[in-house]
Specification:
5 helices; 154 residues; globular; 2 domains
Length: 154
């Protein structure tokens, strides 16, 4: 009898823990969804525009390069792309040489690759991203002369 009670208690505990974990996972997913859709995207006019533009570009089969001087902004856009389930590659100062080339190759050859995030400070010598047909410069402020120099090295 004692074993039966213990088994019942273990089963109830396991079931309760599973239900609690499922609720927690749902709550976490719901929290992340609301955080992105209700707070982070509406907080920036550029993010609102990007949120409207990227689905249209993806539907039309475009491949997009997004440049930013700030790695924190690339981190945020990377998180956004993960949230929207866009296949995304990135190149910034934290990416090693071997991983850089793998990222570039995936973007150029994989038809599912949609967005490539680049830091303007990562160094662009020898980068060939010919698969892209759309470029977005995503910064708080844009000094076109800086970007004219940057694009002249490509």
């Amino acid at each position: 009898m004692e074993n039966l009670e213990r088994k019942i208690e273990d089963t109830l505990t396991t079931t309760t823990n599973s239900a609690a974990r499922a609720k927690l996972m749902f709550d976490q997913a719901e929290f992340e969804r609301r955080r992105m859709e209700e707070i982070l995207i509406p907080a920036s006019g550029k993010m609102v525009l990007l949120d409207k533009l990227l689905p249209k570009l993806q539907k039309e089969g475009h491949k997009v390069l997004i440049f930013s001087q700030m790695v924190k902004m690339i981190d945020f856009i990377d998180e956004y792309c993960e949230f929207r389930k866009y296949n995304c590659e990135r190149l910034d100062g934290r990416i090693s040489g071997n991983e850089r080339q793998k990222s570039i190759d995936r973007f150029n050859t994989d038809s599912n690759s949609f967005v490539f995030l680049l830091s303007t400070r990562a160094g662009g010598v020898g980068i060939n991203l010919t698969a892209a047909d759309t470029v977005i410069i995503f910064d708080r402020y844009v000094f076109l002369l800086n970007y004219c120099f940057f694009f002249s090295i490509f």
